[in-house]
Amino acid sequence: MKKQCIAMLLAGGQGSRLYALTRDMAKPGIPFGGKYRIIDFPLSNCINSGIDTVGVLTQYKPLQLNSYIGSGGAWDLDASGGGAFVLPPYQTGETGQWFAGTADAIYQNIGFVDIYDPEYVVILSGDHIYKMDYADMLAVHKKNDAACTIAVLRVSMQEATRFGIMTLGEDGSIIKFTEKPKEPDSDLASMGIYIFDWKKLRRFLIDDAADTNSSHDFGKNIIPNMLNAGERMYPYQFEGYWRDVGTIDSYWDANMDMLSPTLVNTFDRSWPIMANSPRKVPQYIGPKASVAHSIITEGCEILGTVENSVLSSSVVVEEGATVRYSTILPGARICPGAVVEYAIVGENTVVSAGSHIGAPPDGTEKWGVATVGPNLKLPENGVVPAASMIYTEEEVSV
Fold first, then answer.
1. pLDDT value at position 99?
2. What is the 3-state secondary structure (H, E, C) of the chain?
């Protein structure tokens, strides 16, 4: 069935800078914002933009993410003629092979794209928090008769060293693209969101796969190669909220941003963020509980104090426990007398009585968000200092 446009969603990243949180799952599958997982945002953007066919390319620890996506029904991506399709690396020859890079991931799935014979392909990342109408971006792409359109946002010159940076010509087209430049000459940063003319991209992917010196990456290889070949490439200026949640600090910041609907408005009925949420009993706020400026999701039982925090489903905060400026992932339990502040607590972890995790900012460079991994039971009266990363119970001092 021919489609005008389909999406390919890169969701296979290990997310090594999230450390304990991605020990057992891919980064796009990490719970976020109480009700969601990170991948819910690009999937919701697709269906809200009128794109009903999405290939989800998984790789690292894919089991939980694959199960979560399922048939795509939670995002209305299970309609006849379209859908959400999980596309893991597959065996070629006698041995299996992981994707060698972002471009190689698409190259290995040329056959899937060809089934739909699209005019255009949207390439997305599975680890960004944002709302974007890809239909608007596609309209700009068509207007410019472009081979490639890259979503961009303006960043400070100090931040520019972390991004792919574009320089524009007098006609507004992209004339230079530099991946993570040491001395950037522009503040236009790539968001890692691309629209390509499929026939042209297909040719460049095949040529890149044959290049043994290539990193098989869009930013390092495909985009520079297209520029060098004289292809028409244009930016799409994005003005809204966008955050790459690839580090502990950015993940915590983005969760805190969820407490401000002016930044991340998930109450917008015209652009719903959908999720494959578990069916849980209603939240319960006890008679002695104190809750202020927080997200409390279904299945939570709050008997203690919660302030300026984001609690995922089935979190229990027992009487006498305190949670401040923290993100608590599904099924975690905060026991009596425990204090969790400026921290992230992993799924199903028990913070035992009298424990203290994290600390308020002290103005020093050593300060940071404290993180406790999933499925742990911390010892009573345990202490996890600011900026700590805890993988096992034995790492906790008493």
1. 76
2. CCCCEEEEEECCCCCHHHHHHHCCCCHHHCEECCCEECCHHHHHHHHHCCCCEEEEECCCCCHHHHHHHCCCHHHCCCCCCCEEEECCCCCECCECCCCCCHHHHHHCCHHHHHHHCCCEEEEEECCEEECCCHHHHHHHHHHCCCCEEEEEEECCCCHHHHCEEEEECCCCCEEEEEECCCCCCCCEEEEEEEEEEHHHHHHHHHHHHCCCCCCCCHHHHHHHHHHHCCCCEEEEECCCCEEECCCHHHHHHHHHHCCCCCCCCCCCCCCCCCCCCCCCCCCEECCCCEEECCEECCCCEECCEEECCEECCCCEECCCCEEECCEECCCCEECCCCEEECEEECCCCEECCCCEECCCCCCCCCCCCEEECCCCECCCCCEECCCCEECCHHHCEC
